[in-house]
UniProtKB/TrEMBL annotation:
Residues 1-18 form the signal peptide. The gene is LUM. Binds to laminin. One of its GO terms (cellular component) is extracellular space. Belongs to the small leucine-rich proteoglycan (SLRP) family. SLRP class II subfamily. InterPro entries: Leu-rich_rpt, Leu-rich_rpt_4, Leu-rich_rpt_typical-subtyp, LRR_dom_sf, LRRNT, SLRP. Its main location: secreted. This is Lumican. Pfam families: LRR_4, LRR_8, LRRNT. It is found in: Secreted, Extracellular space, Extracellular matrix. One of its GO terms (biological process) is positive regulation of transforming growth factor beta1 production. It comes from the Eukaryota.
Length: 350
């Protein structure tokens, strides 16, 4: 197993178990989990002359920050290829012919454009596990891709559409980063269907006006923040039995856009609805632990949003509740609230 997996897994696990820190998003971000100290080790003989293939890790080739305008020669035997921070704008059809068993291809911070990617060079990488092409100039996907893929990162491009077959058959794909593109719900409707291993999908900072259709039901984390979402279709989340983290902050949600029980999702642990236009508190499941509602227009606090019934064993599991930046003061909180929200260690109002 590639050593760099280790810090990555730690990031992933800490993300799942740590409290959501609103200001700094600690997990699944653009972490640099290549180990750059290897750049200073002597290189093996089987390496592109301008790159570095560390003696202690000869199947990795590091070609970061070399002002490369095109791909270097890639000798066979390389499995992990780092090409970050160059000026590569295109890829020739035969570019990967020596290394069809490449497992990681990291191309972040280049100038890649779809029109300069000739043929389908990525489809030849039959063992590819990680493909990162964030911070480039892509306007669409780069599929088809091998069914071995487990992580796809295409953030900070100008992607407006993903072909319906681009992700077809990627049964092991677990993580997709598509934040900071120009996607609308119609241009991705159904493209995630059949991705039965998908746990994480980040579509934040796009142009969605409603959540996309056809997402796999096993998903754990869904990020739709910073879009233009005005409403959630009734029963939208009903198929999702494992969803734990849902972010919808910085959208245009109003009370009318959130039908009755649509956010009462039994599996949910964390829900972020901050920076919307809500006047009331949407009803959530008694299992929810972190609820972010800051910067809305909320002016009432009905206990029924958290507890349908209150009793010895019937109460809300909310630990952290943020209501600051609304039209509520402590005097607006009803007395019976304390029975329902008996686990709440922290209710922010100002
Ligand atoms: C494949 O490897 C050979 C021998 O190392 C090299 O001459 C050739 O340029 C390589 N081809 C590509 C496309 O990198
Ligand atoms: C991306 O493409 C646009 C339009 O073709 C061009 O103006 C811009 O310089 C490109 N940016 C990069 C980083 O290649
Ligand atoms: C998916 O992952 C499993 C477990 O790592 C592996 O056994 C299987 O071959 C993979 N499937 C594909 C299509 O790569
Ligand atoms: C949420 O839905 C469940 C199942 O339908 C129900 O038992 C529960 O009382 C609801 N929670 C609230 C706060 O209405
Ligand atoms: C805030 O709430 C008070 C009473 O609860 C109401 O009179 C006032 O108009 C509200 N202000 C806004 C900006 O909604």
């Amino acid at each position: 197993m590639h050593l760099s997996c280790l810090p990555f897994l730690l990031i992933l696990i800490s993300g799942i178990f740590c409290q959501y820190d609103y200001e700094s998003v600690p997990y699944f971000t653009e972490g640099d989990y290549g180990y750059s100290h290897s750049m200073f080790e002597p290189s093996t003989a089987v390496c592109a002359p301008e790159c570095n293939c560390p003696v202690s890790y000869p199947s990795a080739m590091y070609c970061d920050k070399l002002k490369l305008k095109s791909l270097p020669i890639i000798p066979s035997g390389i499995k992990y290829l780092y090409l970050r921070n160059n000026m590569i704008d295109g890829i020739e059809e035969n570019a990967f012919d020596n290394v069809t068993d490449l497992e990681w291809l990291i191309l972040d911070h280049n100038h890649l454009e779809n029109s300069k990617i000739k043929g389908k060079p990525f489809s030849k990488l039959k063992s590819l596990k990680k493909l990162h092409i964030s911070y480039n100039n892509l306007t669409e996907d780069v599929g088809p891709l091998a069914s071995t893929l487990d992580e796809l990162q295409l953030t900070n491009n100008k992607i407006t559409k993903i072909s319906p077959s681009a992700l077809e058959g990627l049964v092991n794909l677990t993580i997709i980063h598509l934040q900071n593109n120009q996607l609308k719900e119609d241009s991705i409707s159904g493209v995630f269907k059949g991705l039965d291993s998908l746990l994480y999908l980040d579509l934040s900072h796009n142009q969605l006006t409603k959540p996309p259709l056809g997402l796999p039901a096993n998903i754990l984390m869904l990020y739709f923040d910073n879009n233009h979402i005005t409403n959630i279709p009734d029963h939208y989340f009903q198929p999702f039995k494992a969803l734990q983290f849902l972010r919808l902050s910085h959208n245009q949600l109003t009370d009318a856009g959130i039908p009755g029980n649509v956010l009462n999702i039994t599996s949910l642990i964390e829900l972020d609805l901050s920076y919307n236009q809500l006047k009331s508190i949407p009803t959530v499941s008694e299992n929810l632990e972190n609820y972010y509602l800051q910067v809305n227009q909320i002016n009432k606090f009905p206990v029924s949003s958290f507890c349908k019934v209150v009793g010895v064993l019937a109460y809300s599991k909310i630990k952290h509740l943020r209501l600051d930046g609304n039209n509520l003061t402590r005097a607006d909180l009803p007395q019976e609230m304390y029975n329902c929200l008996r686990m709440a260690g922290d209710i922010s109002l100002e």
